Structure formats: structure tokens, C-alpha cells
């Protein structure tokens, strides 16, 4: 919640050129009738001049331009979310809709990335219409599903420290279609049991990339219950090193359309047909070949200075050790 309110403060929904103020007072004055037409554009097609703006006020068009012009000091950075831009536009055209707690009713997407978030608290339940929640690159270890809006369709938790799905699966959002858990600390087979239709009946897309899943057949048996699953990402896990990895998944999940960002075509399905029924062909081992082309930053032993004949100087020897960490 703290990160959410800081995010809203950064958007400046109540500050110029958004919100209510002297720059647009007459347009939202409760004691006067709303101005007709589009103020500040001069004469309308019928030749009738629109009401002139009071001194010190700006038209909605000018205020919106201040938000969108990349050279404006009030413009959001290019990588901001479309939701943030829409909120600021709304704060110009209908500022009463984003004042105070009213903003909870209009937010459908929330993106809090790289803000050091460690916990999803109950404050998120105030977002009654939230459909997309992106909390990538934070420090979340476990997430309590009771604190997630039931309206969620997208939950992205990439690059966190999630190591257990039990709390997330206690009361998971029933409409969730995408679950992103890439680059976390999940290990199989203890977590495999939480990846079934019993918890995610409407899941279409699942990202489990770069975790520590090792049991290919065990994971496949759980994923096979996800009848609506069409997109799956498992690359970066130890099980992806198994020679029959892709073939087993393609044959075991006939409704899957994309695996590891690669489309599954009819030829590939035909090529791997029946592989899932031959577990004896699946070798539970992997071979990794590492080639070192060049090592920099250490002295070359062959370039040592030759000692002069009769010199009593000590001989210095060097030894090196190269360590690989997987």
C-alpha cells in the first residue's frame, strides 16, 4: 500500500496540469453551468464563438498537451504504463473521478516495479476493479492470496524471491489467466502440486522460467490438468537440460500453443507423437560441455624472466585454479 500511494503521489493527479485549480476553475464550478463545446478552440463550425476562458485558465486541450508533449516538464517518461497516462488524462477531464478513494474504482491495472516491495497487504483489496497486477523486480518472498482482489486476471511476480506457493494458492483469484513466476526460487517437486486446475481453473499463460524445477514427468502430470493452458515458459530450469524435454511437453500437453516463446506447429506435434507414453526413453541426466576460450588478467608463466647464471635469487612459481559454479 505504501508503494501504491507513493506511485499516485508521483503521478501528481491533484497538481497542475491535472486536478482542480485556478487553471481550470470555471470548467468545474458547481455554481455555474458547464461550458458548452470545447473551450479555447475559438469559433465553432456554425460560426458561433464559444465562451472565452477567464484570465489565467487553460483549455483541456492545452492541459492534455502538457501531459503528452515529450518536451514538457509535466510529461511522464516514455516507459510509463498506459494506465498511468490514462489516469492523468482523466485527472484533467474528470478530476472528481480520481480524487481520494474514488481512484480505487477506476484502476484496472497497477504496475509497481523495482520499489523494494516485500509484502502485499490488505490495502490492495480496495481496488475493486483491478485486473492486472505487476510487481516485478521487488523483494516478495511469499504472497497471501487473501489480500489479492478477486477480479485479477494477470499477476506478474517476475524477479522476486518467491520460494513457496502455499499462501498464494490458499484463496487464489478464480479468474486469473496469466501467472508470472519467472526468476524466483521455486523448487520441485514440492511446489508442483500447486500448479493444477484445482487452483488455477482459467489459467491460459504460465511463466516458471529460471527457477529450480527438476522433475519433468512430475511437473507435466500436474500441468496436464490445466485444460485452458496455451502458453508455457520453463526455460532456465534444470529440467530443460533433459534431451527429451521439449518433446515430452509437446506430446503431453496437446492444447499447448507456445512453449518457451516458440510456436508449436503440426509437424512438431507429429514428430513427438507418442513420446509421453515411453518414459523409458527419458534420461534423467544432462550433459553440460564448457569451453574456455580465453582467460584474462593472470600473468603468463611462460613470460617469466630467466634467472642469470649463478644467481641466488629465489624462483617464484605460480599455480592457478578455475572454478565453475552452477
UniProtKB/TrEMBL annotation:
<dbReference type="InterPro" id="IPR032675">
    <property type="entry name" value="LRR_dom_sf"/>
</dbReference>
<feature type="region of interest" description="Disordered">
    <location>
        <begin position="29"/>
        <end position="55"/>
    </location>
</feature>
<keyword id="KW-0677">Repeat</keyword>
<dbReference type="GO" id="GO:0005737">
    <property type="term" value="C:cytoplasm"/>
</dbReference>
<keyword id="KW-0433">Leucine-rich repeat</keyword>
<dbReference type="InterPro" id="IPR001611">
    <property type="entry name" value="Leu-rich_rpt"/>
</dbReference>
<protein>
    <submittedName>
        <fullName>Leucine-rich repeat-containing protein 43</fullName>
    </submittedName>
</protein>
<dbReference type="InterPro" id="IPR003591">
    <property type="entry name" value="Leu-rich_rpt_typical-subtyp"/>
</dbReference>
